[in-house]
């Protein structure tokens, strides 16, 4: 009886060992697959395809993508063309500013960075968002942005036309 008990214990130990070995092997195999499957599309696709994908992103998503990893950042930071579409959208509100910056040799990205928030504030003023505000205390905190005299002149003209 003792011999039967020892044999069954021995079998259980072997099964446990083989089960543990199988689990380790499976986990190692899974981890290796994970490492190879985490390669990003920038490393897998031709540069033109990656640029086409990045061109579809809005400004916030493009900035977030640039912070994702070094390979994405390198492509996004070094391809000025990715910023052109967004800069031209801002130009609808800040034409004089955009044209001036581009004329001074600024890249599309730098031009966009210099004028993005200004365009948002200027657009809100031109649309009359602050027309019924009676004092400075009635203005939201982010309603002001350093703008030149010509820009404030545009805003005043729009306000007078209302």
From TrEMBL:
The keyword Repeat applies. It holds the Pfam family F-box-like. SMART domains: FBOX. InterPro entries: F-box-like_dom_sf (IPR036047), F-box_dom (IPR001810), FBXW2 (IPR042627). Gene3D superfamilies: 1.20.1280.50. Residues 39-86 form the F-box domain. PROSITE patterns: FBOX. Keywords: Repeat, WD repeat. It comes from the Eukaryota. PANTHER family: F-BOX/WD REPEAT-CONTAINING PROTEIN 2 (PTHR44436), F-BOX_WD REPEAT-CONTAINING PROTEIN 2 (PTHR44436:SF1). This is F-box protein 48. It comes from Salvator merianae.
